[in-house]
Amino acid sequence: MSKTSAAAAKALTSNHFELFGLVPAFALDVARLEAAYRDIQSKVHPDRFAQAGDAERRASMQMTTRVNEAYRTLKSPVQRAKYLLELNGVDVGFETNTAMPREFLIEQMAIREKLEEAESGSDLDSISRALSLEKRELEIQIQEKIDGKHDFAAASGLVRKLMFLERFGEDIDAAYEALDA
């Protein structure tokens, strides 16, 4: 087995954190993740294997795909949290479990109304700032539940809220685009 094939086998069987030499945790040194990503990419990128045999080129493509997927997952707070919950045996079931606390939903409906009534970029800026603060507070709570207390079940509900806010952020982006049109 060539070095590339051996590296591919390891990359394909390790978890995302192991792949980048990171401790599995919600709190993440993004600079360290990016440095590890660049280092691995420089070693496995398909351009380096353009003259290699079919097996090595395939292994390079597999590793590159795996590294890119792992990087995207760990870079996103929502995806990183979901991944950590899965690693810790929590069936996240976010697609089927959409129950949210009533007070959270009422708050979100009020914010959605503000978004629908927004008439200017400054209105959207205000909504966006409030959303950013709320997301940051949830990320802190998720970090406490996952890294501090290892309470993965409680973290699951917080991650669902964060996912909801992420989607709302996309709606805000769409509203900015509509104002620019």
Mean pLDDT: 88
Helix content: over 70%
The first-to-last residue Cα distance is: 56 Å
Shape: globular
Taking Cα atoms only, what radius of gyration do you get, to the nearest Å?
A: 20 Å
Q: What order do the SSEs take from the amino end to the carboxyl end, as H and E?
A: HHHHHHHH
Per DSSP, what share of the residues sits in E-state strands of 2 or more residues? under 5%
Number of strands: 0
Report what the structure shows:
This protein has 181 residues and is mostly helical. The protein is 75% helix and 0% strand. It is built from eight helices and no strands. The protein has helices spanning 3-13, 16-19, 30-44, 54-75, 77-87, 102-117, 121-148, 152-180. The radius of gyration is 20 Å and the shape is globular. It starts with a helix and ends with a helix. The relative contact order is 0.11. The model has no long low-confidence stretch (mean pLDDT 88).
List the helices and strands and how they pair.
Blueprint: H1 3-13, H2 16-19, H3 30-44, H4 54-75, H5 77-87, H6 102-117, H7 121-148, H8 152-180
Helix pairs in contact: 1-4, 3-4, 4-5, 5-8, 7-8
